[in-house]
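Page 47, continued from p. 46.
Same chain as before, 406 aa.
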Amino acid sequence: MRRLFNLAALAVVLCVAVSCGRQEKNAKYVFYFIGDGMGFTHVAAAEAYLAQERGVIGMDPLCFTQFPVLGEATSFSASNIITDSSAAGTALSTGEKTRNGMLCVAPDSVTNLKSISYKIHEAGFSVGVMSTTPVNHATPAAFFGHNIKRGNYYEIGKEIPGTGFEFFAGGGLYHPNGKEGDEEVNLYDWIADGGYTLAYGYEDFKTKQDADHIVLVQAEGSEEICPYALGRPEGALTLPQIVEAAITVLERNPKGFFLMAEGGLIDWTAHSQDLAGTIFEVLDFDQAIAVARAFYDRHPKETLIVVTADHETGGLALGRKGYNYDLTVIDKIKNTTTTTDVEEYMNDRQSLDAVNEEARVGWTTSSHTGGPVPVWALGVGSEKFAGRQDNTDIPKKICASMGVAF
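Result:
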């Protein structure tokens, strides 16, 4: 009996040891990609376009759609079944719902909500926040700012130096001299005085990349978005470049890093019901994720990549006449739309409608829709993101994957 007892005890010890040996480590490097306005159909359109480029019927997978984990997230806000970007950004950043139009402030309009970027930074990780929109626009701002009105860009931008986060990037800063242009202190000066090095464009960044705290924008004093992927001028700042720059700065920390990168212009092109523009923004977003995937390939046991959206924009439908849609018109737009006339094309309702008609696609709205959004994940802790979840669950799962208290 004693021998049987000893054997049973040994078996228990071995089982515990094996279990502990299999225990997954926490993620050291986390990439959190948010495609603003990017629904399942936007992604499908981009994949169908790639297949068509090869002359076949079907869909060629993007980098991120090949990730092994797929889920979906509900996106309603505390006030509306259809969210806006600030309420959705708040949910994706803080794990809490708020009302449309508000940024990281609770529905009571008083209580500030804490982004996981602060919690992760306090745990010793480096933090980067970036977008193809201005840095103080809704989604990136949800990872550092607080305001009852998302449009108070000047006040939101003033919060940047106080974060201590190592890296910020975007097209520029909205309202650098205030909404009325009458503020005495320019936001760029405020941020520089707060200890940040300002870099203007990717080439300028390369000369300043050793700085401890950097804000990278496309040009000195810019209030603009990064140029659209369609008709983008040579040398313009791109999201893939921004992600590369962020990694250069953030990976110096031996503890690890957290990086939030927004493909913000998917939403802008979809608001315009611009099929070609939307497809090229999704493809550009995918190229930025490919940068993270290459990093993952170097650190597969330490990296987590999460890709999602804040909401869907436009209600894109692939097909409106018969059992077919045709994206060959996209190449015509690609080959004829230049840097100088991309804005003109995007604002020409007749031209945009003609493209949609020829392609046989439809849009239900020029605003947001309320359906669930996709979630893809790869790497350490990625299994947590499978299946149905709410957008507030995603930041909680990211913290859990990093071993950071939520």
